[in-house]
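Structure tokens please, single chain.
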Amino acid sequence: MKTMSVDRETLERRGEIAAALRRILPAASVIDDPVALAPYETDALTAYRQPPMIVALPASTAEVAAVLRYCHEHNVKIVPRGAGTSLSGGAIGLADGVTLGLAKLNRILKIDLVNRCVVAQPGVTNLGISNAVAANGFYYAPDPSSQLACTIGGNVAENSGGVHCLKYGLTTNNVLGVEVVLMTGEIVRLGGAHLDAEGYDLLGAIVGSEGLLGVVTEVTVRILPKPAHARAMLIGFPSVEAAGECVARIIAEGIVPAGMEMMDRACIHAAEAFVHAGYPLDVEALLIAELDGPVVEIERGITRIEAIAQATGALCCYGSGSEEERLRFWAGRKAAFPAVACITPDYYCMDGTIPRRRLPDVLRRIGEMSRHHGLQVVNVFHAGDGNLHPLILFDANKPGELESAERFGDDILRLCVEVGGVLTGEHGVGIEKRDLMPVMFSEIDLDQQVRLKCAFDEKHLLNPGKVFPNLKRCAELGRMHVHRGQMRFADLPRF
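Here you go.
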């Protein structure tokens, strides 16, 4: 368990802090009852749990700013939280902190079809944006598997992707602007319904910052016209290595499917039993590839992919015959996580990204690790961009199995970095990968990241204990300020 230190002085002020927050927000929007706090003790990384000290539920940007201003003045830690679907522990609360729930900020503020954008509050679900513009023939492209529940604010925090991010990009490629409340309570706007602004790319810094720099209260996203046509292909292989080779060759040929996903045998059987998507059950790996656009372009792409599949030993290859069948193919993939939950007491979902050409080798080595650690792994991932999601199966009720799963997961992530990849693709760092950051970044790299954190939040009150393995204070990075012989926050421990 990746524990975090607790400030006893703040805990002693719990009643005072709750009373102050009730003067800022309606009384019902401040939760401090232990039973009522239970739903906020974890996010989707359920292996780690920590009930927050208090939960505050603002309903407007002004209320968010007032809460942050109070917490800044009184040195109270803040953890922003959307729907709690984070898989890296980024939204897990602090025993001495306030969890700032943004679920009440759930309105779509503007739909601008002319400029092809939507302005939404952070509590709007990912799918809710697409649903709001569907009647006009538009949609929002990033589509995480949790899109029914995850919110656009959380998507911005984690730079979420989805099955169609191969062609249409991650959240960062589809966010045009944000309204952000800084820890001091200051409200700033970055970007907007226009092309890139001049100067520093502060919008790029906010997207994927995991709530460490500010609280997003408004998001402007790009919407796209629905493709004229779309077809999905199911391609079965005798091994995951053969499927990986097929993916590498498709990309090498310059073919860019709208989405390209892979599942191994265990995942195929779990998803088919859960959804009845029509998957073949006599294959070791299944590739789902979708092409969209004009019919001529789709047919040409299918012909080229069929040839590559045959050359890499595919056992079967067929395309969707209707829109209903296409959606059914994808329903199985998007239900992979809950489907696997039906075959194991617990699972640990990893998230690492590798060069696509290394897929066959990496999948082979993950199989070797599985045998070494004595834990089964189910592979499902965004094959087109090399974003792996191995699911490590274990039973938390068996002593030592959680720890074994963590070690297995750490080995997978180290492997990703070893072959030229990165620690995360779309799930963020949170607390899950925090202690592995030195595997990928040098001390100089990490210090520079902390300097950016200091520029936005010099007291380190926003989501502390996440991302950075050993967070240094601004003083250690050359920003110590001594006023009239007094160093600010002299009581803070300094390394």
